[in-house]
């Protein structure tokens, strides 16, 4: 009987190693797929890779964090504009200053906005119009704002919308939210990092190089299972805490963390995907991006607001953008910059260039007054 046990043990170890040699590349491929995200039109992702400063991911396929220590937050590029008479929904795709002109936006009367429904990331109006946001939490927040505006008398709507816009543009509350989120999810991030190291750092030498002892492989697999269960339990507890504090609006991809081993390794990232709900893209950029990356965005936003004011829209439309331009001054104060400093032109790359486009960063020789790529009125050096 003892001889049979000794013969069966090595055979079982060999089978387990064979399975693991085939399984680990598959798990690594799933991990890379979990890192990939499709950034839709009108949406943006702020993400870090290898623990470095956050970067802005635009339309298309992008890597949203490669290590469990990284983060990725989604937000819509533009929010709604509200006047006393109607709502304006942003265009899904419009280049340069065209995205700041009234004719590019979709006007929705308040009568139609009163009958809306939220389905996932979409807000559906009674007229059949659909508006897709970056996250479901963002859709719920904006639907609540629209409901508040509909309930107000016409004369009070514009002031209410301006107050909401000012709150959304304030970087300080968002910085406090991010700090509170990071402090809350630290245990989950630590468990995800331990799970990553056990599976992709400690296990491959045992499987592919035959590092002794052989029974250590089984022990390590048991540790992986324990860490996975611990990560799922800690994530469930953390989600409840985050929701009670109003930091996130959904379940934070809890089901994916419980069912997918690669998602469990990146649990902290998945929990914070909708952390930016209720805030403006400019506030998010100010809070998450390094200063050198924020300045071009602010320069383009100020120029776009000026184009919206001078673009010939209705009186309510122009007042909304005048109000936004004043509110952007608060963002500049947070960065300890003046409007003049933000609007300072970038370093000239082409000798003889006289104008540049703050949206597509193109430079032009004397003569053109508008960008040939996006139609934006050029700024001069």
Topology overview:
Elements: H1 2-35, E1 36-39, E2 43-47, E3 55-57, E4 60-63, E5 72-76, E6 81-82, E7 86-89, E8 106-109, H2 110-113, E9 116-119, E10 122-125, E11 130-132, H3 136-151, H4 154-168, H5 171-208, H6 215-244, H7 254-259, H8 261-265, H9 267-271, H10 281-288, H11 291-310, H12 315-334, H13 339-342, E12 355-356, E13 363-364, E14 379-380
Antiparallel strand pairs: 1-4, 2-3, 2-5, 6-7, 7-8, 9-10, 10-11, 12-13, 12-14
Helix pairs in contact: 1-5, 4-12, 5-6, 5-10, 11-12
Key terms for this structure?
381 residues; disordered N terminus; alpha+beta; three-stranded antiparallel beta sheet
Your description of this structure?
This protein is α+β, with helices and mostly antiparallel strands and 381 residues long. Among the domains are: 81-164, no CATH class; 348-381. Helix content is 54%, strand content 13%. It has helices at residues 2-35, 110-113, 136-151, 154-168, 171-208, 215-244, 254-259, 261-265, 267-271, 281-288, 291-310, 315-334, 339-342; strands at 36-39, 43-47, 55-57, 60-63, 72-76, 81-82, 86-89, 106-109, 116-119, 122-125, 130-132, 355-356, 363-364, 379-380. The strands form five sheets. Strands 3-2-5 form a three-stranded antiparallel β-sheet, with helices on one face. Strands 6-7-8 form a three-stranded antiparallel β-sheet. Strands 9-10-11 form a three-stranded antiparallel β-sheet, covered by helices on one side. Helix 1 runs antiparallel to helix 5 and helix 5 crosses helix 10 (281-288). The longest helix has 38 residues, at 171-208. The chain is globular and about 80 Å long. Mean pLDDT is 87; it is low at 1-8.
